[in-house]
Hints:
Helices cover 42% and strands 14% of the residues. By secondary structure, it is an alpha/beta fold. The longest helix has 19 residues, at 285-303. The protein is globular. The two termini are 16 Å apart.
Amino acid sequence: MRHLLSLTGLDSGDILDLVSLAAKIKNNAKKYDDTLKNKTMLMIFEKPSLRTRVSFEVAMTQMGGHAIYLDAKDSPLGEKETIADTAKVSSRYCDIIMARLYKQENMEELAKNSSVPVINGLTDEFHPCQILSDLLTIKEKKGKLKGLKLAFVGDGNNNITHELLLGCSTVGIDISVGCPESLMPQKWIADIAVKKAKISGSKIKITQNAKDAVKDADIVYADSWMSYHIPKEEKEKRIKLLNPFQVNKDLIKNAKKDAIFMNCLPAMRGMEQTADVIDGHQSVVFDQAENRLHMQKAIILKLLKEEK
């Protein structure tokens, strides 16, 4: 890997190597204390963040490096200065760049003009770091990846659904997406996932029936109904549209008895899931959040070719 912009170009070996490295780092973090001494990461943010910013900054610090936070509104990015020029200049200063942007095409423009690795910390279409972390969590909780079934219910046209389709199909996890017809995953991304599924032997199903999606699932996954790019005035309309896809105690009963519940956070109790689900015994959402740190370390080391 030169950059990590999405999971579209990663194969099963790439993903499993990152999951294995992240687990190794998690179990022996001290071994990596000085791995990134004198290395600097530039972190560019157009979108708000808790987990992405903190996990990347802590990851660099714990491995002996340094991270610089740059709020896009305080920079000339894309306005007074082109994205290409930003990439070329930043590459002269820093060893690696992580960006959290709205448009995927801007992320790709950044990477195209950067002489150092670029990590996609989230765009409207993709969120690779989150799903790689989620696969680490699933492996920890279930002991395997291949042969499981993951059910995502909610907004199918978002970055989490897209990357879950790509990640699960690559490593052999069956994935079922339950969503309204008007919020289906983007077809070109689903088509890539179908091709990946043929290689791994996994199955993909997209349905408008939440119970059908969740039936016999090992993992039930929900995400925010109000992603950062969704206008606030659409909130009531989206609640009405997505309410049949809320993960509550009745819906999750359709999954396997030992199913785990996941949400990448932030989460709103009473919206995409009820409090009794996210705060219940099946929930692993805070283990998910912790694993962002370990996976970010693995991604950084892999891109900088510093893994041990």
